[in-house]
Each structure stands twice: as C-alpha cells, then as structure tokens.
Write a structure and sequence with these properties.
Order of helices and strands: EHEEHHEEEEEEEEEEEEEEEHHEEEEE
Number of strands: 23
Structural class: mainly beta
Shape: globular
Largest sheet: 14 strands, antiparallel, barrel
Strand content: 35-45%
Helix content: under 10%
Number of helices: 5
Number of domains: 1
C-alpha cells in the first residue's frame, strides 16, 4: 500500500470535487489565452467528474489512435457507438480487456478492466452490455500535516445496456443507458466536509450509416454519437455545486479498401468535443499591449451567486444546468472560435487485415497543447483464430505531457460465442 496525502493526487481531485476554486488564471484578449506571470499562454483544460468514462477500454481502438466510432463492429462497440451492433456479423460475442496504468512508476494495483458483449435479436436489431471498472489501488490517506486518516481503495465503475436497430438497409440507431458509481474517498474529510460516493445515470445516443462503394465492395461508414449525457454529480452531501459528466459529441468516418479476398485496409478518423463549459478565468487583462494594461476581475465569472442572490465565489460555468452547459459549450470559450477549435481532439487510425486472421494497426491521437496536450502514437496487432481473437496495443508519447499508458501493453480478448447458439 502506498502513501498519497492531501498534497498529492488526493488534494487535486477532491479540491475540485467540493467546489474550492483552483482557477487563478488571467486571460489576455490580445493572445486569446490564459497567461502565466511571464505572459506565456498556459493550459485551460476542460474539467469534468468521473473522467474514466472517456478512457478507451479496448486494445483494437487503442492501437488506432483511439479511433472507434466508425470501424467495423465488435463486442467493444459499446464504448464508442452501440448503433454499429445492428450491423454485426456474429450473433453473439464477448470481450474482456485489461489495461494496466502507471506501470513505469512501479504501481501494480492501478488498472482498468472492461467486459462487454452483444447479442443479435434478429437481422435488424441487437442488444449490448458492458461493465467498466477502474481501480486506483490501495491508498493510505493523510491530512495536510501528514497524520494518518485511514486507508481506502478508490474505485469507479460504469454499467451499461444498449438497444440497437436498423432504420433501413444502411442506417442504424441505438440508445444506451448507464449507471455510474465513483468512490474516491468516502468516509474522509476535506476542510471539515465529509466526502461521499458519487452516483449518476446517463445515456448515449448514436447513429451509423454504412454503404458499399466501388467495384470491390469497399465499405464507407459514417457515425456520430452523443455520449455520457446525464445528471451532474457531487461527492458531498452539502455541496451547492455539482460537476458535469464528460458528455461528448463524436463524429467519425472509416473507409475500408478490399483489395481482394485476403487483403483489406481501413482508414479511420474520429473528431471529438466535450460538451461541458469552458473554465472561465478569475481575471482579465484590460487594454493589453498598452502602457495602461492592468488586471481586472472577470465580470462574467460569478454573476449568478448563491441562492440569496449574492456572489458565492464559485464560477458560474460550474453552476450551469445540464442542457445550458451542453449548448453553451460551443460558444463559451473566452478566446472565441479559435479556442473552441482547440477543444477538439483528433484520432486517426489505420488497420490492415490479412485473410481476416492477422491484423496490423497504427494511429495517432492529437489534443491541443492548451487543452491537455495529450499527443501519442499507437501501435498494435490482432490475431483471430476460429472463434477467438486477441488484440494488443502499445502507446508511445510524442508530447511532454505524460500519459498513464506510456510504453504500456494492453490486451483485449474477444470470443465469438454464437457458435454455441442454435441457428
């Protein structure tokens, strides 16, 4: 068991959870970004509760730069786009994935486990399910003075069920229902506030359009999904502020080239945007670039205030309603359209199959340096034999921002259980 005090991970997570403000940014309109004391642009990352919901759980997409919205359906489609399940060829399939985290730091008890599958009810409809479990290992909690306050096992999980149906020969839709549970430090206290378990319900809505083009029946797929739309969460009973789930709008396309009966090559591109408010700065630079430049309070930071009508010191963007936050997420960045575009992430992947038995994959994931700076190259292979398949992926960072999956192998096992069903 390792030590992790309030001055480490614990304070970073729980301070944001209970609503104590971490925002200390100053926005410079002339640069279109928040700046540090040297006038250099700094990150203004979108923050949400339960970010584990956004973690790509399967090794196939993990080796294609996290692209997965429009690639061919399998048992892991539940995470990206359940509507693909209506186009699945097998009647029943199961998948299990194990993803170790922070192995380079010598930690062995931090991991993500994912179990998913689907069952075709008919040629036109399918149901799917998934269970995602994220363990942060065993932790000894301490207060700010280093005194022990007990131990715990922070963990989070998501249970999902989906129904997918074809709306025509080329179009399908699905709806997914989710239950989310996040227990980071139940029974602990931060600044006298009791920490509890967060619970939420959420839903995904997805569409897939698939068609054949060209003389070799090449396949073009377009997909879109709005995911993790659900109730805001709080880790305290007394909190006046609840945090957004990582709602997401994803748009993806894939083109599969069938060279012959043995060789195929798929190109995939996903573009994603979080549907949550952009954090607003405390301060603004007035008259930037002039001799009269000075810092002033951001008048838009805390207008709503507490229930009694006065400012409560909590940014209004954190207190917005669910749908106001979603709709406003496209236009609320202080840097305007330029900053909104920076909030997009891009996943590009390539997959080569030989005889539908051996696959080689690669991809790249890009996030703007001012919005998280996650940038990495991915590699992977897949092997399929009869009713079983295994996928392996490997992540190589290409930016200065470290990833919990740096230089880590992850594995997915897929089993086509339809061979045991009566046909």
């Amino acid at each position: 068991m390792r030590q992790l005090g309030l001055r480490g991970f614990y304070i970073v997570v729980l301070v944001a959870i209970i609503g104590i403000q971490l925002e200390a940014q100053v926005f410079d309109p002339s640069k279109g970004c928040a700046i540090d004391v040297n006038g250099e642009c700094i990150s203004n990352t979108l923050l949400t509760a339960v970010p584990f919901l956004k973690i790509v759980p399967d090794a196939r997409s993990g080796s294609m730069g996290d692209a997965g919205l429009a690639i061919s359906p399998d048992a892991n489609s539940m995470h990206f786009n359940a509507s693909k399940l209506a186009f699945a060829e097998q009647n029943f399939s199961l998948s299990a994935t194990y993803t170790p985290w922070l192995r380079e730091l010598g930690l062995t008890d931090v991991y993500l486990a994912y179990l998913s599958g689907y069952n075709k009810l008919s040629e036109d409809q399918a149901i799917g399910f998934s269970l995602k479990f994220f363990s942060l290992g065993d932790i000894n909690f301490t207060d700010i003075n280093g005194n022990s306050t007990g131990s715990g096992r922070p963990r989070e999980f998501e249970i999902s069920g989906a129904y997918a149906r074809k709306l025509g020969d080329n179009l399908s839709a699905a709806i997914t229902a989710k239950y989310i549970n996040s227990n980071l430090a139940s029974g602990q206290q931060v600044q006298g506030i009791d920490i509890t378990t967060a619970n939420a319900f959420a839903a995904d809505i997805s569409l897939t359009y698939q068609t054949e083009v060209g003389p070799n029946d090449n396949e073009f797929t377009f997909a879109t999904a709005i995911s993790n739309l659900g109730s805001k969460v709080s880790y305290t009973n007394s909190s006046d502020t609840k945090d957004f789930l990582p709602g997401n709008l994803g748009i993806g396309a894939a083109y599969k080239l069938n060279f012959d009966s043995y060789n195929s090559l798929t190109f995939a591109l996903d573009i994603n945007k979080l549907l949550v408010p952009t954090p607003q700065p405390f301060k603004l630079i007035e008259n930037p670039g002039t001799d009269t430049a000075r810092e002033i309070d951001n008048p838009d930071f805390d207008l709503t205030g507490a229930e009694n009508g006065g400012p409560d010191g909590i940014g209004d963007y954190r207190q917005e309603s669910l749908f106001k936050g979603i709709l406003g997420s496209f236009t609320d960045a202080k840097g305007g359209l330029s900053e909104e575009i920076k909030e997009l992430t891009y996943s590009f992947g390539v997959e080569y199959w030989y005889n539908n038995q051996f696959a080689v994959r690669t991809g790249y994931y890009f996030e703007n340096e001012l919005k998280g700076d996650r940038q990495y190259l991915t590699l992977g292979v897949g092997l399929k034999y009869n009713v079983a398949a295994i996928n392996i992926s490997y992540l190589i960072p290409t930016s200065n921002r470290r990833s919990p999956l740096d230089n880590t192998l992850r594995f997915s096992f897929i089993f086509d259980a339809s061979v045991f069903q009566a046909r």
